[in-house]
Amino acid sequence: MNLSNPEVSNKIKQYWCERAGQTDPASLQATTYDVYLRELEITKLKEKISAASLPHGSTVVDLGCGDGYSTMSLASAFPDVRFIGIDWSEEMLTLAEKKLSVQLDLLDRVSFRVGDMRSLSSSLQAERFDVFLTMRSLINLTSSAEQYNTISQIAEHLKPGGYYFCIENFMQGQNNFNRMRVTMGLPEIPVRWHNHFFEEEEFLVETSKFFDPVIIDSFLSSYYLATRVIYSAGCHLMGEEPDYFHPIHQTAGQLPVIGDFSPIKLASMRRKL
């Protein structure tokens, strides 16, 4: 793709705006077609937020919130916490507002703002918060430089000791599950044109400038192995296309975690005091 970074960024934003426009407000597939994977992500974040023991009145910022489904699911689980969802796609936020309008118990604790994660002060001014979340949103930035600049801004907008929980994609897991696919006679799944995955070692070096500790958890490893390798190999033998609503996606999340076969990982970190 022979485009400059700003042109690529605009193309990525257009992609998500168009996807939002093509998505039914009641659908759970606005930000990923794999709805069971999304639920596993939400469950994992609930565990992390619960373990943080946030005081009453804390605020969580969901950066790159998309249609707000995850934001509202988390808000429902933590009635003493305020949630702010930020996204650069007004179309995605239109879906979010529609979902929020029918959840009357969340109206006073959940809000959405249009904002670009590359310039957090434009939507957050000088505010500082207790927790930041990203869920497959930093990978939509065009370069490592943009990604780490955004992470530095997240650190600036966190209170000392505040938490950053990011669910993002890493090349190590991507390469590992693709090697398994090739072993099973399947083609590799490429990184999509609008995504830029992290390198794990570089990620640890860059985030440790602001956070301590930084812990990476490949919590979806068994899920990917079951759905993207074993199930896909079965579909290949049967001459069928994989179906994201096949029961294996619903049950694979119950497997104990083994190996490092998922590009999607959770990085948990705490702002240095």
* Major sheet attributes: 7 strands, mixed
Name of the CATH class: Alpha Beta
Q: What is the CATH architecture annotation? A: 3-Layer(aba) Sandwich
The tally of beta strands, per DSSP, is: 7
Give the count of structural domains: 1
Q: Specify the number of helices.
A: 10
Judging from the principal axes of the Cα atoms, what is the shape? globular
What does this structure look like?
The protein has 273 residues and is of the alpha/beta class. It has one domain: Rossmann fold. Helix content is 43%, strand content 18%. It has ten helices and seven strands. Strands 3-2-1-4-5-7-6 form a seven-stranded mixed beta sheet. Strand 4, helix 6 and strand 5 form a beta-alpha-beta unit. Helix 1 runs parallel beside helix 4. The longest helix has 18 residues. It is globular. The termini are far apart. The model has no long low-confidence stretch (mean pLDDT 94).
What's the SSE blueprint?
Elements: H1 5-21, H2 35-52, E1 59-63, H3 69-77, E2 82-87, H4 90-101, E3 110-114, H5 121-124, E4 129-135, H6 144-156, E5 158-169, H7 171-183, H8 200-207, E6 211-217, H9 221-238, H10 247-251, E7 264-271
Parallel strand pairs: 1-2, 1-4, 2-3, 4-5
Antiparallel strand pairs: 5-7, 6-7
Which key phrases capture this entry?
273 residues; 18% strand; 10 helices; Rossmann fold; alpha/beta; seven-stranded mixed beta sheet
